[in-house]
Amino acid sequence: MLVSVLAPGLLTTVQDAGRQGARAFGVGVSGAADAYSLAVGNVLAGNPPDAAALEITLTGPTLRFGRSATIALCGAAIDAHVDGIALPGWRPIRLRKGTTLTLGACRRGARAYLSVAGGIDVPLVLGSRSTDLRGGFGGHRGRALRRGDEVSVGSPPGNAHHHREAVAIAPWWIDHEPDLDFSDSIAVRVLTGHDASQPSDALHAHEWIVDASSNRQGLRLRGPALQAADARERISEPVTPGTIQLPSDGAPIVLLADAQTVGGYPRIGHVITADLPRLAQRRAGQRLRFIPVDHALAARANAQQRARLGRIAVGVRGLRTED
Amino acid sequence: MHGWRPIGATSIPDAEFTPADVKLDIPIERLGDTALLVRFGAAIDAALNQRVHACAQILRARAPAWLLDLAPAYASLAAHVDTSGLRGDDPLSAAEAWLRETIDENLIEDAPTTPREMEIPVIYGGDAGPDLAEVAARAGIGTEALVAMHMANQYTVAMMGFAPGFPYLLGLDARLATPRHARPRERVAAGSVGIGGAQTGIYPAAGPGGWRIIGRTPLRLFDPTRHPPCLLQAGDRVRFVAIDAARFAELEAQTRRAPT
Questions:
Q1: From the list B1, B43, B166, which residue is nearest A26 (CB)?
Q2: Mind telling me how many Å the CA of A303 is from chain B's nearest CA?
Q3: What H or E segment, with its residue span, contains residue A289?
Q4: Is A299–B89 a contact, with Cβ atoms under 8 angstroms apart?
Q5: ipTM
Q6: Contacts of residue B160, Cβ cutoff 8 Å, sequence gap at least 6
Q7: Short-list B220, B202, B241, B257, CA closest to B124
């Protein structure tokens, strides 16, 4: 099935759970910046949690579906319409063949995920369907969607459904609490990094504001300038999504999904994996504060998030077989 | 398909591992909650770097399913871990125990070193190397002398980083070391050969870049659909060979990228 891109939105890319095993080639992970929303959306659409979906940034695309399709919109709360009918997020929605889906602004959060039953079917490159924007490969032709693109969707398992209405919306939905938090100021849990800041609690001492220059590679934070305790130049060492770097201008950068594989700046902390989704939903001008935690708490938080995803998958499977 | 698989997928079944009797001197620290960083040193040094890649080779050959990726750098190596595949309240400690068990100093010392020797054809100066004259002037030499010096040395690929397929090369003649541009160029052509501080490297794809550009190669350094995707690999010995515009055009036609 083909989905036609009538309007592309601000930055719409194909992303799955990311690309592992290619860092030795200088290739980072990419993948959904908010992996939690990707997984829930896929489960709602009847896909494996790591299937490829569209990651929509701030303003969404207008898409025409060549066949009937089951979709789900997760992550940021986005204006979505079919034939003047507003579509809610976090639940399965069936669209009739030939439907035009109009996605507008993200009202809360920065990134929405459109999962389609069958998954976005672009070729696997180095083991993943994710778009590597800096490398210019993967996803749909290695770039964000443009007007006129036709994106292929895989065949969903199970029988095709037929219905007269343009849309059929499930009467139930998934609650994204506590994994996402769209409020204006949020708490993000951090582990210590290799390098100390000066003073040592400077990262946790006050709120940070997300700068407009933030992107999939990293969130740039504004606040009082920090200093590394040891400001000497250092050689490049590995970094990963969640790493908090401190460049010499004193403004921390939290690396996101498009993190490079190595970096030379001091590393003053790491955001725990369970909190990366809420970090990916921060918009320019919004605030966050860092809360120091230890590894035992991080491991527990990650395991609990995985358990919630597991329960959602079981529950959704039950509801889908009922109808 | 091109036979590419994540490293853990080729592994032998997870062996039961117990804390090692032998104490490993190499520090291992945590890189967040999903990776461990093994540090061999904190200097840019060919011998240190060789130990990093020998270690990566040993770990790759024995990778359990939970070992998602290895990121070798100048003097350190990150092991990225699927913590959902490990048991216990602190899954990274299990991964660390495996690393301490598996990283054997003797194996690293005895790792065979038969580096490949690679030649990179380069057209120096002109549009292909807009900073050639300035780098020569800063070094107090002529452009021809600069080109001769750049070609005379043999370089070692220390790691890939910064961008997919970007090789960091050790072995630049110290007299050619030149600081990066204060303001990076918005667009550097694919194949551009540059000098950044005491290092030389090659931009695999067009994009912004701050290194001083002295020439360009027609070879395609990175192609994600090729196996392996990088023309060069860590440990390779590289020499640059000057070519003229006609030879550049000929080689470029041979290696022109397939439409994607």
A1: B166
A2: 7
A3: strand A287-292
A4: yes
A5: 0.95
A6: A24, A25, A26, A261, B166, B167, B168, B230, B232, B234
A7: B241
Q: Distance between CA A178 and CA A183 in Å, rounded?
A: 12
Contact A146, A5 (CB under 8 A): yes
Instruction: Give the closest of A132, A136, A262 to B159, CB-based.
Output: A262
When pLDDT is cut at 50, 70 and 90, the band that residue B12 belongs to is very low
Q: What is the pLDDT of residues B173-232, one digit of tens each?
A: 999 999 888 888 889 999 999 998 888 999 999 988 889 999 999 999 999 999 999 999
In the predicted structure, residue B1 carries a pLDDT above the cut 50: no
Model pLDDT, residue A198: 83
Binary contact (A23, B78; C-beta < 8 A): yes
Architecture per CATH, domain A185-292, reads as Beta Barrel (2.40)
Q: Do A22 and B207 touch (CB under 8 A)?
A: no
Q: How far apart are CA A56 and CA A179, in angstroms?
A: 19
**Residue B257: predicted pLDDT:** 53
State yes or no: pLDDT of B237 exceeds 60.
yes
Q: Which part of chain A has CATH 2.40.100.10?
A: 185-292
Are B70 and A23 within 8 A, CB to CB?
Answer: yes
- B230: chain A residues, CB-CB within 8 Å: 25-26
**Which stretches of chain A score pLDDT less than 70?**
158-163, 322-323
Q: pTM for this one?
A: 0.92
